[in-house]
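Weekly modeling sync, notes
Attendees: S.R. (lead), two postdocs, one rotation student

Agenda item 3: backlog of single-chain predictions. S.R. asked that every request posted to the team notebook include the full sequence so nobody has to chase files. The rotation student volunteered to paste the first one in as an example of the format we agreed on. Action items at the bottom.

Example entry:
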Amino acid sequence: MNLRGFLLVSALAGVLAGVAAVGVRSIIGDDDANGAPPPSSPTPAPRVETPRALAGRFAAAWEAWDAAALYALLDAEARAATPPDALAGAYAAFRAETAATGIEVAVERADPREAVLRVRLQTASFGTLDYTVSLPLAPGPDGAPRVGWTPAALHPALAHGGELRGTVRRPRRGAILDRRGEPLAVTRDVRVIGLDRGLVRDRAAVVRAFVSFGFGAETVDAAFASPLGPRQRVPVGVVSDERVEEAARFVQAVPGAILWFEQRRLHPLGPAAAHAVGYTREYTAAELAARPDELPRAGDRLGASGLEATLDAVLAGSAGARLEVVGGARPTVLHERPFVPPADVRTTLDASVLRAAHAGLAGLRGAAVVIDPRDNAILALTSSPAFDPDAFERGEADALAALVADERHPLANRATHGLYPPGSTFKLVTGAAGLDAGRYAPSDRIDCGAVWYGVDPPRRNWEGARGPLTIAEGLMRSCNPVFYEIALRLHEADPAALAAMARAFGFGAESGAAGLDDAPGLVPDADWKRRERGEPWYPGDAVNLGIGQGDLLVTPLQLANAYAAFLAGELRAPVVLAEASPAARGPLGLAPEHAAHLRRGLELVTEASGTAGWAFASAGHRDFGGKSGTAEDAGGEAHALFVAYAPRDAPAAVAAVVFDDGTAGQPLAAPLARDLVIAALTALER
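Predicted structure, as returned to the notebook:
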């Protein structure tokens, strides 16, 4: 085709295109005589965004921490002054320094020159911060408003320059020490070996490697099964100082094995001090939510039992927090919570006596309490069976489940919450009540027959007839008829007299020891029986009480403290904190000759003619006093008890021992009480 033909075809195509463009209009009819299309409607001008809408978009972008969206709303001057990276860094720093956990931003008002935003910032360290910020507004080239951003858009305190700084000072839990400063609980940095499961390529090989290092396969499998995230470190165990280099080589050779330091609460005496000292646990999610102002974090710990729990506030201290603007023309403190330093707590407990008590109880169910009656300081407070408190610190789920399921109840503190009928150890109280009421004199003798007929049914003496005995001799042979008779005569004169003397010795009430939580026990009387059972107080109830039976219940701590009160002449609260003093709870009020007579009876118990002479014959130069007891509880289980003290002329140690199983504990109670007194005297001499 030549050039002329090409131009002709092109022109024809243009005409056809024009026809196509107006063809539809021609088909439906066009009244324009000239064939020209009618004028089109004018295009509406774009709608300009309102200041409130702009402020709302700014608020939404801030709530999302979307720095790119925020930057898009800035005016040219703000963009030039604050490049995108600088703006993103400013918001990231603000979020980090405030430890922000949530934010709500609402438009309070907006006009063409200014928008005011109401901010509620939730933080992990500084509570909830409520404030307002002002955003300067100006129209952009298209007439739409834009934000003139400065750091004051984050917080008005930044208007004069400077930068925001948040600091939190966290305490390191204080130590619990024995009377000589030996640690019973301490926080230390320990090396932990564990897993980053995201780096493990061959699980079986890793398990074999950890087993060869010395960990059990079950322990390693439990670490693999941890509910923590796949890239979170999971502890397998602690590495001793002697194996640090070996552990370093191990983690280099085993993919997924890692080594790090972390704080651990350690209890060096382990089970020997478990119930007295206690253990810690992590805060629950509910507790964290309920105590935001105290700054606990997930993973932080608090005292769960024993002294760890009762002294938690002292041991834990309190985190301090400060949010401030530093530098600039006007440094400002926005929030401040004072730091409360933790404190070490020195106790009256003695590590050597605690170990002796734990060993002597031999895992049998029971308890032992040792007190220095001179200042009422508790040297040992031991319950058995015991447990490893660090199993709670390590979070060993299987071990903890086994403790909870154990039918022997190793977590129960029998020393402070075990309730036992005191049996014949209570005869000291009955003798004191008889003498104090004037019903008997030290020289009086009471028949110790084989059978006592004072109430129905008649009651037999455990060792047959012994003839007329003084109260001291009645203690020596633990003669039931002697104390039946005293209790009956007291009941006839004043039914409340024996219960009143029991309370004077500290029974039926909490001990009052600062730092300890203990059960009050029960001293039954006529009012109690009428209130609880709707029955009168019978003479049989009184004579049962006279030998420490019936409904009477005491704790081992109360028993030791009662004998300490007798030796000191007054009831005082036991002391477990070294800086505390023994609060007086009331004098016993016994006449000196009565106290001396009862004391002679307790000393006779440990001599050759006494019921426990066999246990003290080999005690060497130590001169003892004491009292045995066998009692049956409401469930029919017999318990073995013994209280011992020494030396006679100036008692410095009292030990109360209780074995739940009387059959197993009967031959052990007196020797253990003797040995604990000796251990305490030895410790006090150091």
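Discussion: group reviewed the output briefly. DSSP finds 26 helices and 25 strands in the chain.
Action items: rotation student to repeat for the remaining queue; S.R. to check formatting next week.
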